[in-house]
Amino acid sequence: MSSQIPKKVVIVGGHGHVALRLARLLTPTHVVHSIHRSPEHTDEIAATRAVPYVLSLEDSPVEAFSVAFEDSDVVVFSAGAGGKGGAERTKKVDYEGALKVFEAIEGVKGKKPRLILVSAVDSRNPDIVPDHYNEEDKARSAKYRESIPAYVKWKYEADKNLVARTSFEWTILRPGGLTHEPGVGKADIGKTHITESISRDDVAATLALLVDRPDAAGLALDLVGGETPIAEALDAAIKDRVTAWIG
Ligand SMILES: NC(=O)c1ccc[n+]([C@@H]2O[C@H](COP(=O)([O-])OP(=O)(O)OC[C@H]3O[C@@H](n4cnc5c(N)ncnc54)[C@H](OP(=O)(O)O)[C@@H]3O)[C@@H](O)[C@H]2O)c1
């Protein structure tokens, strides 16, 4: 189970809805630095008790991210273009920005931090339909691929790039559709059906637990609404070495 030894955690995409929630959960027990792109958001980030740190995934060099990651134990990537700026910007932030973070971790002198990458359910080789998908999953998957093709493509390409890397430890968290509903503290985690949504509160709660779970390294975990307490569902998936990754 988790050990609550204080860690230094760097959140990339720190002004995001999930990231702000995560910072609030972590700062009572961990040192948190929150990387955000706009200086205008500094006060909002400081209000979470995280240390604001301005860098842009699109504009700042990889070396600047390596410096930001020095002495950290865990990096959480929760950034995304959020559909703003079209397919080109989705590629820039969700794919090239993620690769910049991977390269920056590799460039950290000394001990490399572990990475937790927020991806999405159904990030997979488009030619392989997971065995556990039912008809509803297949229909939802087809809908994603039709309505947000750039998002689906670049999340998958980023995940695929990460999975091939061995020089630092990583875990991929793959939430279903996100809501602003209050968290319920329960979920289905591991290799799941993909039609249930999940609240951003519950995604943040799962990320906070993953910060203290180095034994989740090498796993890609789906996270959708469900009936099992999050800590229990996460613990079972990690212990059973469940992974939803299909490369
Ligand atoms: N929406 C869904 O249903 C869904 C489902 C599954 C997974 N996800 C993933 O879950 C993650 C978190 O979601 P969320 O709702 O918290 O997203 P969000 O609120 O849109 O947060 C994303 C953050 O990324 C930041 N960002 C964008 N471009 C950047 C850049 N160049 N440099 C640095 N930061 C940059 C944004 O900064 P600004 O605040 O300055 O714009 C924003 O704060 C994302 O990776 C998303 O793809 C979403």
TrEMBL record:
<dbReference type="InterPro" id="IPR016040">
    <property type="entry name" value="NAD(P)-bd_dom"/>
</dbReference>
<protein>
    <submittedName>
        <fullName>NAD(P)-binding protein</fullName>
    </submittedName>
</protein>
<dbReference type="Pfam" id="PF13460">
    <property type="entry name" value="NAD_binding_10"/>
</dbReference>
<dbReference type="InterPro" id="IPR036291">
    <property type="entry name" value="NAD(P)-bd_dom_sf"/>
</dbReference>
<feature type="domain" description="NAD(P)-binding">
    <location>
        <begin position="13"/>
        <end position="214"/>
    </location>
</feature>
